[in-house]
Write a structure and sequence with these properties.
Layout lengths: L3 H9 L7 H6 L11 H22 L5 H12 L1 H11 L9 H5 L6 H18 L2 H18 L9 H11 L6 E8 L6 E7 L7 E5 L2 H15 L10
Antiparallel strand pairs: 1-2, 2-3
Helix pairs in contact: 3-4, 3-7, 3-8, 5-7, 7-8, 9-10
């Protein structure tokens, strides 16, 4: 498959027959001229509204404060960047030479902003119902996994904050292997923590899931409960 936009369309499960909007959504400001910042602004508002409604319907007994914190967790930069990595979005970005040299295609903020820009582009190219359904499709596994009793911080965040509080180095994650076909991949990821003698290995259907699994195991080995309530 030589057409990169065709490959991206398959990953996000949406096709732009006129490619001008998706090309703009993929263009970082480091390129100069027209870029994705306006689309990002639009997409940010849309994803907040769609996720707010989804949480409102999913948790009818939840109070406003809880819903606000859950929404913040779902739409924060790290979650959007995880979506971008699930799509392999870094392979399709248009970056200026400086950003390319500094690894901008892996930078969390750039990946998150690009997801928002793509959402804005889909909205402009289609309609409210289409972009809402696409966002809910992308977020399906994350929304399904949410529980009103879940801790609001995922294992990776909890592990990072624990190590920072102890003034220890942050955990180091490395992909050990990727097996299976493009749509049925199994990722194995190692997590190295200074207080633990051996690396921990997690696995899952995406790098994100594998890293979260490894972090959860590390927390257990460090004696940190995974059953904390909300802060």
């Amino acid at each position: 498959m030589n057409n990169p936009l065709l490959k991206l369309s398959q990953r996000i499960d949406y096709t732009f027959t006129d490619t001008s909007l998706i090309e703009l959504a993929l263009t970082h400001r480091s390129c100069g001229g027209k870029n994705n910042e306006r689309l990002e602004f639009l997409g940010d508002s849309i994803v907040n509204l769609v996720i707010a409604e989804a949480l409102f319907l999913k948790f009818p007994e939840a109070k406003e404060g809880k819903l606000s914190r859950l929404r913040a967790r779902m739409v924060k930069g790290v979650t959007l960047a995880e979506l971008a990595r699930d799509f392999g979005l870094g392979d399709f970005l248009h970056l200026g030479s400086g950003e390319m040299k500094s690894g901008g295609h892996r930078r969390e903020s750039i990946l998150a902003d690009t997801v928002e820009a793509i959402i804005g582009a889909i909205y402009l190219y289609s309609d409210n119902a289409t972009v809402k359904n696409k966002i809910l499709q992308w977020y399906d596994s994350r929304l399904s996994a949410l529980s009103i009793d879940d801790p609001l911080k995922d294992p990776k965040t909890r592990l990072q904050e624990y190590l920072q509080a102890k003034q220890l180095p942050l955990p180091k994650y490395d992909v050990l292997s990727i097996e299976g076909s493009a749509h049925e991949q199994l990722f194995k990821v190692s997590c190295k923590v200074k207080d633990l003698e051996n690396s921990i290995v997690g696995q899952g259907g995406s790098r994100r899931i594998a890293e979260q699994e490894a972090a959860a195991q590390a927390l257990k080995l460090l004696g940190i409960s995974l059953e904390l309530g909300e802060e």
